[in-house]
Design a protein that fits this description.
InterPro entries: ATPase_NBD (IPR043129), ROK (IPR000600). This is Sugar kinase. It comes from Clostridium disporicum. 35% of the residues lie in helices and 23% in strands. The chain is built from nine helices and twelve strands. Helix 1 packs across helix 2, helix 5 packs across helix 7 and helix 6 crosses helix 7. The longest helix has 25 residues. It starts with a strand and ends with a helix.
């Protein structure tokens, strides 16, 4: 039995995973802002001594290097992790071996091992949420790059002038969809699901916003094809569970009038796993990397 932990900005999720990668038990608690890293890791590990497990796989936000050092800040409730070594902090509190992977890379690794990227020699994972989570894999697994930033799609640079950049997350995330819609009307929606509901009901402004947004997503997918040319790109996030969304992305992507689309064979799929992908990926990665 392995313990999986998914550290998020809102919740910390836990799950016990058996040898067949089935979730046996899962629970969660709010991510609480702590003043020090010791308070945070004490809170993270509190109560874990009550469960039986062999080792721990952790999915965590931010840039994480191959030694589990957190190199960048993430959401406010977990930013105290920056500058810490996750494996060391959790291991000394649980006396268990620990393996940590960036959250989007964990989701991608789950799909690579047991999802819609299984058996591919090259794949990319594009997780649409508040930002854009990213992961790229070859036939051996996750490609991290020198500092763990390979596959970070949110900060892909679109423009740079006078010391200020425009980044991909600002045009293709769920947050971007809300901004696109609100820029077209005096209405002020707070959730991407509201825009999607209006779209499905034929609202003209929502239809324009969704089409603009999906065009932006396709820009990202095209750039992934140019720098990596994978067999498949799997779309993740809650929106990827919607058939209409996957169909629209495929339609718009395949009809792009840009270089090499006439010979592009990259498939666009949805991620097979959604809610449990981060935890499953973290555990699968731990199984492969903990001696």
């Amino acid at each position: 039995m392995y313990l999986g932990i998914d550290i998020g900005g809102t919740f910390i999720k836990y799950a016990l995973i058996d040898e067949n990668n089935n979730v046996v038990e899962k629970w969660k608690k709010p991510s609480e802002m702590k003043e020090s890293k010791d308070e945070f890791y004490d809170y993270l590990c509190d109560g874990l001594e009550n469960y039986e497990y062999e080792a721990i796989g952790i999915s965590a936000p931010g840039v994480i290097d191959s030694n589990s050092n957190v190199l960048s800040k993430a959401a406010p409730n977990v930013c105290v992790m920056c500058g810490t070594n996750v494996n060391e902090e959790v291991s000394k509190r649980t006396s268990k071996k620990v393996c940590t992977l960036n959250d989007a890379k964990a989701a991608g690794y789950c799909e690579f091992k047991i999802g819609n990227g299984k058996g591919t020699k090259s794949s990319a994972y594009f997780v649409i949420g508040t930002g854009i989570g990213g992961c790229i894999c070859d036939d051996r697994g996750v490609i991290k790059g020198m500092n763990g930033i390979a596959g970070e799609f949110s900060p892909l640079l679109l423009d740079y002038k006078n010391g200020k950049g425009k980044f991909f997350a600002t045009i293709a995330s769920m947050s971007a969809l809300i901004d696109i819609y609100n820029s077209k009307t005096t209405e002020c929606l707070k959730y991407g699901t509201d825009v999607c509901e209006k779209y499905l009901n034929g609202d003209k402004i929502a239809v324009e916003a969704i089409n603009d947004w999906v065009d932006n997503i396709c820009v990202g997918l095209y750039n992934i094809v140019l720098f990596f040319n994978p067999q498949v790109i799997c779309l993740g996030g809650g929106i990827s569970e919607e058939d209409w969304f996957i169909d629209l992305v495929r339609k718009k992507f395949s009809s792009m009038k840009v270089y090499f689309m006439d010979i592009c064979t990259t498939k666009i799929e949805r991620c097979l796993y959604s809610n449990d992908s981060n935890i499953l990926g973290a555990v699968l990665y731990a199984k492969e990397n903990i001696a």
